[in-house]
């Protein structure tokens, strides 16, 4: 049975070594002309907030297994506003074959458009191995609010191996590029005093908008293990580590809510 | 290549201002994250595989002849902390002065003219290596070594750590230093073909947090 036939039967492309699935969202000022889940990735149009179209990633997305290759693509066209969240945390689990899973996120935001990408945490379960790659291309006049949080191990559990990369370009030029690697398969020193220092949750909140060209954000320390820093380009990044997911979210939420209140 | 030129460039006494910087060790000591030689080893190892790899690859790419101004922009994108961007440019300016006196080159002159307030230090070092007849992996080695020798030297002063213990930490990291330099040079070779996104962007959250905290201290022993 070919890949096309498998897809026709229910959206899954099965076969060694794992699941391959891509979900796609296209937002325009008028609506969501493309909203396609695939396989374990299901997308739901949910109640909009003001002028924002809202999409929630639901259900079975919560398990990239070793060997899987899953991807989400969102294109926010000129002037559109899109809010994306998820119904539950994503849990990376060990695969049947012990292979590495890949999760790719590709986001494009056009002129005068805005994307708020606020999913729940990514949890790296013991024995899992996940590479997550996020690539964001912003037009010069695009706005972005982007959060990602990594939790190392479920409650009381040793972490799996997790490697993430977040690459953001604005008007075709690099704006932010950050790679993080934790767990038994990461290079040494990841839990030492330079990187995590024993913390088990790490996160980033990135906010980009043309207004920061004239009025850059001010650097701010957020307690002992988090900081808000203005980027070289028009935006700011919150970098935070915390003992657990709840404390991490509290730190990021303080900044998120303060930012959203200004919009 | 000239092995002696590599020694001159990598020497801690090369007058490029590096001795005034702890590489994040000063705030890490204050926060209790470095208390002994074992903590220092984990700190250095973590810095080597994150900021070290990223900087070593930028240096290798500059030594390989990639556009230094595009690399400077890539370095900014890889440095979200304004305190660390300022430090990198300040060290870049000092490295530029020393390098132009040591190995004069048109490429160094052009970068100095384009970035009078300083380019990111690893890029200047990469161009200096190139002017000295060294290769991309040599430049990566210099940066990788400096990324761990800075904190090790600083911790001797900050904690009164036995200098023999600090040097033993560096010696034990040698195989990892070689591996990071090799990886950085490979990434630079990839970037020649695929563009600068092929360069690593490994980062360390606590280094960024502590750099901003440290920059706000009223009194400190080290500049960064």
Automatic annotation (TrEMBL), chain B:
Keywords: Chaperone, Cytoplasm, Nickel insertion. It is found in: Cytoplasm. Its main location: cytoplasm. It holds the Pfam family UreF. It comes from the Bacteria. Gene3D superfamilies: Urease accessory protein UreF (1.10.4190.10). Required for maturation of urease via the functional incorporation of the urease nickel metallocenter. Belongs to the UreF family. UreD, UreF and UreG form a complex that acts as a GTP-hydrolysis-dependent molecular chaperone, activating the urease apoprotein by helping to assemble the nickel containing metallocenter of UreC. The UreE protein probably delivers the nickel. HAMAP family: UreF. This is Urease accessory protein UreF.
């Amino acid at each position: 049975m070919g890949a096309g036939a498998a897809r026709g039967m229910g959206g899954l492309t099965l076969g060694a070594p794992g699941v391959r699935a891509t979900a796609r969202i296209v937002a325009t000022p008028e609506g969501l002309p493309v909203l396609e889940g695939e396989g374990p990735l299901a997308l739901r149009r949910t109640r909009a907030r003001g002028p924002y179209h809202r999409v929630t990633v639901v259900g079975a997305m919560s398990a990239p297994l070793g060997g899987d290759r899953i991807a989400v693509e969102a294109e926010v066209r000129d002037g559109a506003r899109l809010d994306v969240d998820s119904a539950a945390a994503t849990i990376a689990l060990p695969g049947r074959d012990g292979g590495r899973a890949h999760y790719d996120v590709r986001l494009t935001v056009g002129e005068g458009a805005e994307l708020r990408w606020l999913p729940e945490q990514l949890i790296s379960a013991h024995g899992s191995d996940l590479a997550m790659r996020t690539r964001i291309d912003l037009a010069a006049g695009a706005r972005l609010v982007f959060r990602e949080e990594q939790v190392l191990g479920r409650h009381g559990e040793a972490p799996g191996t997790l490697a993430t990369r977040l690459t953001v370009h604005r008007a075709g030029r690099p704006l932010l590029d950050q790679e993080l690697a934790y767990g038994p398969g990461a290079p040494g020193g990841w839990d030492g005093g330079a990187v995590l220092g024993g913390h088990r949750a790490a996160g980033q909140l990135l906010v980009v908008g043309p207004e920061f060209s004239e009025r850059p954000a001010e650097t701010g320390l957020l307690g002992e293990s988090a900081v808000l820093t203005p980027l070289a380009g028009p935006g700011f990044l919150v970098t935070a580590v915390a003992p657990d997911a709840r404390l991490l979210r509290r730190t990021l939420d303080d900044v998120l809510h303060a930012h959203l209140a200004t919009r | 290549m000239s092995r002696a030129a590599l020694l001159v460039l990598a020497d801690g006494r090369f007058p490029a201002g590096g001795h005034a910087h702890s590489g994040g060790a000063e705030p890490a000591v204050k926060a209790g994250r470095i208390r002994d030689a074992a903590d220092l080893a984990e700190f250095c190892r973590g810095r080597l595989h994150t900021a070290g790899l990223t900087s070593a690859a930028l240096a290798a790419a500059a030594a390989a002849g990639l556009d230094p101004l595009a690399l400077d922009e890539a370095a900014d994108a890889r440095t979200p902390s304004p305190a660390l961007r300022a430090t990198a440019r300040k060290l870049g300016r000092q490295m530029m002065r020393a390098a132009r006196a040591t190995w004069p080159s048109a490429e160094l002159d052009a970068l100095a003219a384009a970035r009078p307030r300083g380019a990111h230090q690893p890029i200047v070092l990469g161009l200096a290596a190139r002017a000295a007849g060294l290769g991309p992996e040599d430049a990566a080695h210099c940066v990788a070594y400096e990324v761990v020798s800075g904190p090790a030297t600083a911790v001797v002063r900050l904690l009164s750590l036995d200098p023999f213990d600090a040097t033993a930490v560096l010696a034990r990291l040698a195989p990892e230093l070689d591996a990071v330099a090799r990886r950085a040079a490979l990434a630079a070779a990839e970037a020649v073909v695929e563009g600068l996104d092929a360069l690593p962007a490994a980062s360390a959250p606590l280094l960024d947090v502590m750099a901003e905290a440290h920059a706000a201290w009223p009194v400190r022993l080290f500049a960064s």
